[in-house]
TrEMBL record:
<protein>
    <submittedName>
        <fullName>Probable protein phosphatase 2C 33</fullName>
    </submittedName>
</protein>
<dbReference type="InterPro" id="IPR036457">
    <property type="entry name" value="PPM-type-like_dom_sf"/>
</dbReference>
<feature type="compositionally biased region" description="Polar residues">
    <location>
        <begin position="19"/>
        <end position="47"/>
    </location>
</feature>
<feature type="region of interest" description="Disordered">
    <location>
        <begin position="16"/>
        <end position="53"/>
    </location>
</feature>
<dbReference type="GO" id="GO:0004722">
    <property type="term" value="F:protein serine/threonine phosphatase activity"/>
</dbReference>
<dbReference type="InterPro" id="IPR001932">
    <property type="entry name" value="PPM-type_phosphatase-like_dom"/>
</dbReference>
<feature type="domain" description="PPM-type phosphatase">
    <location>
        <begin position="70"/>
        <end position="370"/>
    </location>
</feature>
<dbReference type="Pfam" id="PF00481">
    <property type="entry name" value="PP2C"/>
</dbReference>
<dbReference type="InterPro" id="IPR015655">
    <property type="entry name" value="PP2C"/>
</dbReference>
Amino acid sequence: MGSCLSGDRNNHAIPYSEIASTSRGDGVVTRSNSNRKITKKSSSPSIDSPREMSLHRVPGRMFLNGSTDHASLFTRQGKKGINQDAMIVWENFGSKADTIFCGVFDGHGPFGHMVAKKVRDSLPLKLSAQWELGCQVSPPVLVNKDSGTSRCDPGRLGSSNDIHVMLKESFLKAFKVMDKELKLHPYIDCYTSGTTSVALIKQGRDLIIGNVGDSRAVLGTRDQSNSLIAVQLTVDLKPNLPREAERIRLCKGRIFALRNEPETFRVWLPDSDSPGLAMARAFGDFCLKDFGLIAVPDISCHHLNEKDEFVVLATDGVWDVLSNEEVVAIVASSPRSSAARIVVDTASRAWRSKYPTAKVDDCAVVCLYLDSSESATVTTKEQQELTKDMET
């Protein structure tokens, strides 16, 4: 949920093995006695590369509340402080007319808002660069962390399989470069701050998703009886997942929950009760990178068909209170121009109803429509309402 916990938990820890396998929350317990110092090379966080500063003027790139024929996006600050969620829709991505990039990013820790926005701005550029580089190599090579190296059949260049292989490699390399850049960043302290990322590329009817953390992508599609159903496309990468827990333990990281939140698994340093990160993968959070936390994306590929209608990307401020089915039903019944906003509105009400004593989390939603047959023209009044919560 992008929040930080505080307080002494020495007398409230529960061993991982004694906790049920459900979880909620993605915050961190902030280090109270970090001795780490940062040498700032820039006096202002607004100073960055000219290329990234010019991004705000790129046609087809949206990162504020609004909509197009293809997408609706909306974010709103919760009740925990500055909005640490970020989002993006980039049409004609990589100068390809049939390609769209989408992403949502949920920051956490004291500088999580800066990390989320940095990844929002930089990751697409790195992904595009890796993709362009991959297109110049034949046959493309994919280094898979689980199954070694595989190659595309040179006789099938241009097929969906080759696109998937090339984009998978691009995702893996771009995420690695992105995390390295954050570690070396001159003014953003990523030691106990980080962000999730669900990033998606749609090219034609091919869909590639790279995921770190517990933001989520869900597909709205039709079953054989033409009923609308929700299909979860990503896995919430929590520390309680067996494969994640095994890696963390092998690296000497610890996993347990606090007694006052037994459903939330967190990752802790081997000899210190910090930082308490409630996810197994993330950009940043370098205090845990030697103890099992990774920024390697979990990648999935999909070839879309005529029954697939839209994809919803959202941070866990939405998924903590709304089911996949509820979100898909909301999007399907809402005008395209305001679908993302309506999902956020519904999630905010659900927070107040389900967790009346908790602070509402930040929410960010991107609804990507898989066709543009329905007009999504937005009136001036609607646009003013949509951008009411626009980030500055």
